[in-house]
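Checklist before submission:
- one chain only
- standard amino acids only
- sequence pasted in full

Submission:
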Amino acid sequence: MFQDNLSKRIEINPKIMFGKPVIKGTRIPVEIILRKLSRNISIDKILQDYPHLTRKDIQAALEYAAESVHGEEVHLLRAVKWIMKFLIDESVEKPIVDWLRVQKYDVMYVAESSSGITDEEVIKVANSENRILITNDKDFGELIFRQGRITQGILLIRAVNEESSNKLRLVKEVLEKAKKKLEGNFMVVNEVGIRIRKIYQKN
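Returned file contents:
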């Protein structure tokens, strides 16, 4: 019964977040939920950041972690001329999406348009619509960079403080200080600073 309940809420699909456990039907890794909880971010705040999740989803993430510790092996693993276009991965909190829209950026949010789509589909959308990808997930962001799969640009948010307000502050700093370098580069931002690497397309 316990495993049945988990299977209704948690899934592992090699085509989504490269096989990380995610909340079923989304691209939100269990890892991100657990990291937020470990930093004393309340369930109410998490649900505010991800309005399409439920308390049962959060509970399932905790149960999955408990079961994993008990015995399972867990592997945690181009902009337009006038308006910059972003593809916001589902792991990114909604307040960041809302702020970007207020600033009149062209924003597509995976959680709204295609919740739970595969990694390949995310890559396809980013490339076909010339959108810069913003993601919270280190493994996904770094792997597609190394593979040269997305050439328009990638912004990886690697915050120590998991509060969405802090992550939004980091995004604002990127857009204030390094906006012109987003296109064609892999950019990592955290509380210390911004790291930029050129993306080279692989054949």
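Reviewer check: Strands lie at 10-12, 21-23, 85-88, 106-109, 132-135, 154-157, 185-189, 194-198.
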